Amino acid sequence: MAKTADLTTVQKMTIDTLKKEGKTQKVIAKEVGCSQSSVSKHINREAKGRKRCGRKECTSKRDKRALERIVKQNRFKNVGEIHKEWTVAGVSASRSTTHRRMQDMGFSCRIPRVKPLLNKRQRQKRLAWAQDKKDWTAAEWSKVMFSDESKFCISFGNQGPRVWRKTGEAQNPRCLKSSVKFPQSVMVWSAMSSAAVGPLCFLRSRVNAAVYQEVLEHFMLPAADQLYGGDDFIFQHDLAPAHSAKSTSTWFKDHGIPLLDWPANSPDLNPIENLWGIVKRKMRDARPNNAEELKATIKATWALITPEECNRLVDSMPRRIAAAIQAKGAATEYRLPYMLKLSMFILFSWPTFLKNHFLY
């Protein structure tokens, strides 16, 4: 015979209907196909209006509202600090109860995402720039050559795979990740269009206007010939001092290369930033021992970028601009479309996944 907790919805509805018809519990149990005690418990539960059993919650709706206010005042506090403030507010609850109530509200502890800090004037300029470019089509954005520098370190800090370990294995050499105080690093410049990526330039010194113009002469111009042939294009770079120097502006005028006006402190609008992030994520499993091995790894990973991936990133410009307008010029976080992430996983991570999880 079925217990009260095992009664189906149909059985419960049948019991309620037969009860209204005046049938006895014995007759109801026979027709429904369960024990008489199950019928009795269900009828009594409905009569008392009790929907659940167990201990009553020790916090009220007012207490929950107070907890939500505490969390929203400073979202970077840990559970212990939030619990202490909640207790001071007059709520008697344990630390674990505080954590459960936060989870019930939908709060989860996550690593905060990083966005550039923008002042009011910069937000206004970003908004004006986005509104000016909101009608640009994908074909117009395909004529833009995006460029940027990025720093690669032998040790990628908090990036990299997590480790599976048991209790007491924290100091196991196989579970440790090596780190150095001043890791070797290289600075890289490159460019991209909707068709492909340009060559890499490894910078050996601090980038000033003179060094940057050498990069333009020996790497940007060949990249333009490679990506656009003899067609016209617009060059994009940010407002770094070397980029906005008068001598650099003169260099572009002398070569007849138009520049795309670009808002300050806006890496979220540049698709090549996503490309750098993709390359660094794909290098997580690499273990270069020196700067030369790091350069070789960067070159090998950069060479795997396909034209389809570049095209998807540049095609995202209208969505980036729409997000900037919606945020009223504030910094936005643009995430790669799901299909692009999937294609990246298949291209870069799938062979490593098979190697690490299966035996050939």
Automatic annotation (TrEMBL):
Residues 144-295 form the Tc1-like transposase DDE domain. Coiled coil: none annotated. It comes from the Eukaryota. One of its GO terms (molecular function) is DNA binding. One of its GO terms (biological process) is DNA integration. SUPFAM superfamilies: Homeodomain-like. Residues 64-132 form the Transposase Tc1-like domain. InterPro entries: Homeodomain-like_sf, RNaseH_sf, Tc1-like_DDE_dom, Transpos_IS630-like, Transposase_5, Transposase_Tc1-like, WH-like_DNA-bd_sf. This is Transposase. Pfam families: DDE_3 (PF13358), HTH_Tnp_Tc3_2 (PF01498).
